[in-house]
């Protein structure tokens, strides 16, 4: 599949027509999305009109922008004017926002063509896209396995070749974890780097929007398009947007890379290029990280050392408490944010004898079990008599996490860890809530700190399925993060292919 950069260059030069490019992707969706279910809505007619407008601009000698004619899929919790935005919930089924999210406006202004809205765990609450009211999304590498979540539809759309780019949201790892499981690149920017205006809120102090792409260059391009200050978002950072593409070729010579001990254990200590071996783990080690995943991270560290980076081990002790803190703070914020779905203002309404019964019946019918569970957990954590014991302590852990990361970044430019503790798992395999929540154990810490992090494919693990390595950087450190990610991409073993394994008519099918 062509990259977004290549597609845009061809369309801007007149070598290809945006309408033809769009038809190719729509044809792939029509053929295969019945098996994958990446999309809740395919906006074919709207996309054809947008592609025709792009072609008209090129014919007039005008430049449509850096994403000229590139089909883009948007997670279905990003507001799109006149196009259903459901959050994969019965509560918002069929709801059409009266405005576009800021990131949707930015992508459109850059010449992108919206090809559809992608499936997700309901209200972005999940790690497998099994909790969608409209059915699960399947991993293109193995249709019997999950794509990750909550942005599983966006990740699957890119991995399956339905779109070169997609946007998702990341509250506790919902971009990076599905990127890892689907063998693609996913970026969670610094909190405030990208506007949240028009993102349906889950946990407002964690939520961030970021891109999915097949390679680091495309992800950097999309990140540059959506980044920037937005007066409509009070948490938006008034910082200049760097030239992210320029960072990709700088190389890692002289950069300091820390392998997080709590996420990898002591592991093996090969020192590339004859350097000093990193020390053993300084603190507790997170449970449940598979050995094959850890091995890929250590191989990635070796590759960076071979490329000239200084690699060592670093302890970030508070990450071992991240899961507990997150699953108190995030549900607390969700219980507040989702209070607006009461059957009165918009969305689903189930009539009752009085307002109280109407509200109760609406929420009972509109929310799925996972959303209800998190609302109840969050309401409990905020309740009188429990606030200090739970929510207050969780916020103190969040501050400790911030301090521990700051200490680590005093000695290292970037940090490495697994993205997901395992490769893509089978449907129903993690039905126990705690087992499912542990899918986010490596990604949550960067949401607690607000720092940028991304997942880069680096070889395979069990059953020849993709493994992602997580690159983390200090706040507003996306340039250095992308430099390291590009170096990892150059050194990475090739992934097996093609995706869509197991789909009738494809090659390389797994059984």
Portion of residues in beta strands equals: 5-15%
Radius of gyration: 22 Å
Q: Per CATH, what is the topology of the domain at 4-247?
A: Amidase signature (AS) enzymes
DSSP strand tally? 11
Mean pLDDT: 94
Give me the CATH superfamily of the domain at 4-247: Amidase signature (AS) domain
Distance between the termini: 24 Å
**What is the class of the domain at 4-247 in the CATH system?**
Alpha Beta
* Overall 3D form: globular
Query: From the helix content, strand content and strand pairing, which structural class follows?
Result: alpha/beta
Low-confidence stretches: 269-282, 504-511
Provide a descriptive summary of the structure in words.
An 11-stranded mixed sheet has the order 1-3-2-4-6-5-10-11-9-7-8, with helices on both faces. The chain is of the alpha/beta class and 511 residues long. Helices cover 37% and strands 12% of the residues. It starts with a helix and ends in a 20-residue tail after the last helix. Mean pLDDT is 94; it is low at 269-282 and 504-511. The chain has a domain at 4-247: Amidase signature (AS) domain (Amidase signature (AS) enzymes). It has helices at 4-13, 18-36, 44-59, 102-109, 152-159, 176-182, 216-226, 261-264, 291-306, 322-337, 355-366, 369-382, 387-409, 433-437, 444-449, 478-491; strands spanning 39-42, 71-75, 113-118, 165-170, 185-188, 208-213, 256-260, 310-314, 414-418, 453-460, 466-472. The radius of gyration is 22 Å and the shape is globular.
């Amino acid at each position: 599949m062509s990259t977004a950069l290549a597609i845009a260059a061809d369309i801007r030069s007149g070598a290809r027509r945006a309408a033809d490019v769009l038809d190719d992707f729509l044809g792939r969706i029509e053929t295969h999305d019945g098996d994958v279910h990446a999309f809740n809505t395919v906006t074919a007619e709207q996309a054809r009109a947008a592609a025709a407008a792009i072609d008209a601009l090129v014919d007039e000698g005008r430049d449509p922008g850096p994403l000229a004619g590139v089909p883009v899929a948007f997670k279905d919790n990003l507001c799109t004017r006149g196009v259903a935005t459901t959050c994969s919930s019965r509560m918002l089924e069929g709801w059409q926002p009266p405005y576009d999210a800021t990131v949707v406006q930015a992508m459109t202004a850059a010449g992108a063509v919206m090809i559809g809205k992608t499936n997700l765990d309901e209200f972005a609450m999940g790690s497998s896209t099994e909790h969608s009211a409209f059915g699960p999304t399947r991993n293109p590498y193995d249709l019997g396995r999950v794509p990750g979540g909550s942005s599983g539809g966006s990740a699957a759309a890119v991995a399956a070749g339905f779109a070169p780019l997609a946007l998702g949201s990341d509250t506790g790892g919902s971009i990076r974890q599905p990127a890892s499981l689907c063998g693609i690149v996913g970026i969670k920017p610094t909190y405030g780097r990208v506007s949240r205006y028009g993102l349906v809120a889950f946990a407002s102090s964690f939520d961030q929007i970021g891109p999915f792409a097949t390679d680091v260059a495309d992800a950097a391009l999309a990140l540059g398009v959506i980044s920037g200050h937005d007066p409509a978002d009070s948490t938006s950072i008034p910082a200049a947007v760097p030239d992210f593409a320029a960072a990709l070729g700088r190389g890692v010579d002289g950069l300091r890379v820390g392998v997080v001990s709590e996420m990898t254990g002591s592991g093996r200590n090969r020192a590339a290029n004859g350097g000093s071996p990193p020390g053993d783990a300084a603190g507790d080690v997170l449970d449940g990280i598979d050995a094959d995943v850890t091995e890929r991270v250590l191989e990635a560290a070796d590759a960076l050392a071979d490329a000239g980076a200084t690699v060592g081990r670093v302890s970030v002790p508070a990450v071992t408490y991240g899961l507990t803190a997150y699953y108190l703070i995030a549900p607390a914020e969700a219980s507040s944010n989702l209070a607006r779905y009461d059957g009165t203002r918009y969305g689903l309404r189930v009539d009752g004898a009085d307002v109280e019964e109407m509200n109760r019946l609406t929420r009972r019918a509109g929310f799925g079990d996972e959303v209800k569970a998190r609302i109840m957990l969050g309401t409990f954590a905020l309740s009188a008599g429990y606030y200090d014991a739970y929510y207050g302590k969780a916020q103190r852990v969040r501050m400790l996490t911030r301090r521990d990361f700051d200490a680590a970044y005093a000695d290292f430019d970037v940090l490495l860890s697994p993205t997901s503790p395992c490769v893509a798992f089978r449907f129903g395999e993690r039905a126990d809530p705690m087992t499912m929540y542990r899918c986010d154990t490596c990604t949550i810490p960067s949401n607690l700190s607000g720092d940028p992090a991304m997942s880069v494919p680096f070889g395979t693990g069990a059953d020849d399925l993709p493994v992602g390595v997580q690159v983390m950087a200090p706040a507003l450190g996306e340039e250095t993060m992308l430099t390291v990610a590009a170096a990892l991409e150059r050194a990475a073993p090739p992934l097996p292919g093609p995706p869509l394994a197991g789909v009738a008519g494809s090659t390389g099918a797994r059984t």
